[in-house]
């Protein structure tokens, strides 16, 4: 069963709102993204909103976003339905082809079958095999296109919302903190804006659904 699955490392790059490189060193907290040091405000300066000239940095947990954002859950359900529909369509065709195959074999093995009739039966068997292969390929491509379409919608919604969130909250850089730790090696609690991102995305999506239902 397929799922909408965006690579966390790719999303971490896509969600980088601004590229921040700081060469200064202060007593404040410092973390690493790759080989680049990123100076983060202390909890006290973060809480007071006074970070001086240092960039304001936040992180999100994309694994939580994927698990809790309703529009991603709905996208996964759409892809699952499309996959099941394709599988059912292929199974129906395969079942009909199997029945016809058995009838052709029985006929070809029957008494009094001419060479011409045997050749016709063999040709039809080859046609059945080709038709099944073509159907399987076309249905696989249809599901793949649906997956790509949903992935694009998810990425567009995430990048658009997080860019607006960063601008509205004066955040210079948002980086990913996933299960694998990709994108950030340290993040204290005041920097975690995941709950606000999830809440905002779900509220925005719920409003869109209300408009559609009305």
Q: In terms of structural class, how would the helical and strand content be classed?
A: mainly alpha
Largest sheet: 2 strands, antiparallel
Distance between the termini: 33 Å
Question: Segments where pLDDT lies below 50 for 5+ residues?
Answer: 1-49
Radius of gyration (Å): 28 Å
Counted by DSSP, the helix tally is: 6
General shape:
elongated
Question: Helices, strands, pairings?
Answer:
Elements: H1 8-14, E1 30-33, E2 36-39, H2 43-48, E3 57-60, H3 62-68, H4 70-108, H5 115-168, E4 173-176, H6 194-213
Parallel strand pairs: 3-4
Antiparallel strand pairs: 1-2
Structural features, described:
α3 packs parallel to α6 (194-213) and α4 (70-108) runs antiparallel to α5 (115-168). The chain has a two-stranded antiparallel sheet with strand order 1-2. It has 214 residues and is mainly alpha-helical. The protein contains six helices and four strands. It starts with 7 loop residues before the first helix and ends with a helix. The longest helix has 54 residues, at 115-168. The chain is 62% helix and 7% strand. It is elongated. It has a domain at 8-71 and 170-213.
